[in-house]
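Narrative of accomplishments. A recurring question from our advisory board has been how the design workflow behaves on a single, concrete structure rather than in aggregate. To address it, we present the structure tokens for one chain from the evaluation set, followed by the sequence designed for it. No filtering or post-editing was applied between the two.
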């Protein structure tokens, strides 16, 4: 039996207001900084192998993921809301046009003027 494990470690940095009040006072920093590793693991087992092996493969990613917790500007929020409303309006117009065109074709087919 052969068992293989693969572990990938991705460094992650959390910046933001995650810290407690006492941590901010001790560090003198308004933004807390936490560095952790996010682990992803997979395993595979092969029962047809004649030898008993256990294999560990690990990889530390050279890229770090950075998460921030920041307040969004009110104008950016309003722009995002307007973009969502505009997208919905456009999608509703497209669906309405397809329904209108389809009903015209069906009506012309009923009165035998589709030619």
């Amino acid at each position: 039996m052969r068992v293989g494990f693969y572990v990938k470690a991705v460094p992650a940095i959390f910046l933001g207001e995650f810290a407690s009040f006492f941590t901010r006072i001790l560090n003198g920093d308004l933004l807390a900084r936490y560095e952790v590793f996010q682990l992803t693991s997979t395993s595979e087992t092969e029962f047809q192998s004649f030898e008993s092996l256990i294999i560990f493969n690990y990889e530390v990613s050279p890229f770090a993921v950075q998460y921030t917790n920041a307040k969004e500007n009110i104008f950016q929020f309003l722009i995002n809301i307007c973009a969502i409303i505009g997208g919905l309006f456009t999608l509703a117009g497209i669906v309405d046009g397809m329904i209108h065109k389809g009903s015209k074709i069906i009506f012309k087919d009923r009165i035998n003027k589709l030619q």
